[in-house]
Amino acid sequence: MNHRLIILFLFTVLIAGTGFGKDHKLKLGMTTSMDNAGITKLIEDSYDSLFSNTDLKIVVSGTGKVLSYLDTKDLHLAIVHNKERELLFLEEHPGERIEIFSNDFVIVGPKDDPANVAQASSVAEAIKLILDAEQIFISRGDDSGTHIAERNTWAGHGVDYSKSEYYLETGAGSGQSLNTAAAMGAYMFVDSSTFYLFQNKRDLVVLKEHDTPNIYSLIIPTSDLDEETLLQVIEFKDWILSAPTREMFHSLDDSLIRYIAANE
């Protein structure tokens, strides 16, 4: 093999190894809770194994941040979990909203439950009991889907629990916030998938389930996409709604995630 062929061979290997040899790039936003549950990696690995011509890049952040990236066209599509924000986004960026996954929101706290949260009739009452009992409640405080859902449970009751000295915002994701709650023996509102996989529970247990499921939707701003990108997005949509993908997600433990997309 002469020097020219060796250089060509090495260049080809370099391109293949870095993904530059792929024909298309697709940028998908996903939430931290999906990432905590391992769904991000499952999607990335499964999709890449089938569509080798597309370089799928997944950006992980809270729902508010992901939608802002979608708004500035730094992402092509997203899987997020706050219906109100999603519909507001689609008013300005017409496209599709498809419900894909669900899990539950829960309040976790110390096993001995000094605030008697397990006896509460609702999540809003549970948070009131926690603060009235002068127990620490940890909130993500990061404009994520989980943070928005937590605030929505009590925002319509004419009080602002975030003003309490016992209401602490971390400004961080669920994993870091749960570490704080575990270390302090505090209470926290979190999605069930994240808590199910969380390794540092210490004395934390599930004490109250929210009565409204936590829905994750695929958001596609079709009006913002050029023709070539739209074709890649449609390819992804068809894949995530396909029978083999449905079977893959149905095989997971329901405590982790529920695949709820309608059969195509």
What can you tell me about this protein's structure?
This protein folds into 2 domains: 3-103 and 214-259, Periplasmic binding protein-like II (D-Maltodextrin-Binding Protein, domain 2, 3-Layer(aba) Sandwich), CATH 3.40.190; 105-209, Periplasmic binding protein-like II (D-Maltodextrin-Binding Protein, domain 2, 3-Layer(aba) Sandwich), CATH 3.40.190.10. It is built from 11 helices and 11 strands. The protein has helices at residues 3-18, 32-36, 39-50, 63-71, 83-92, 123-132, 145-155, 174-184, 192-197, 227-240, 243-250, and strands at residues 24-31, 54-61, 77-80, 96-103, 105-110, 137-139, 167-169, 187-191, 204-209, 214-220, 258-259. The chain has a 6-stranded mixed β-sheet with strand order 2-1-3-10-4-11. A 5-stranded mixed β-sheet has the order 7-6-8-5-9, with helices on both faces. The longest helix is centred in the N-terminal third of the chain and has 16 residues, at 3-18.
Kindly summarize this structure in a few lines.
Helix content is 42%, strand content 23%. With 264 residues, the protein is α/β, with parallel strands linked by helices.
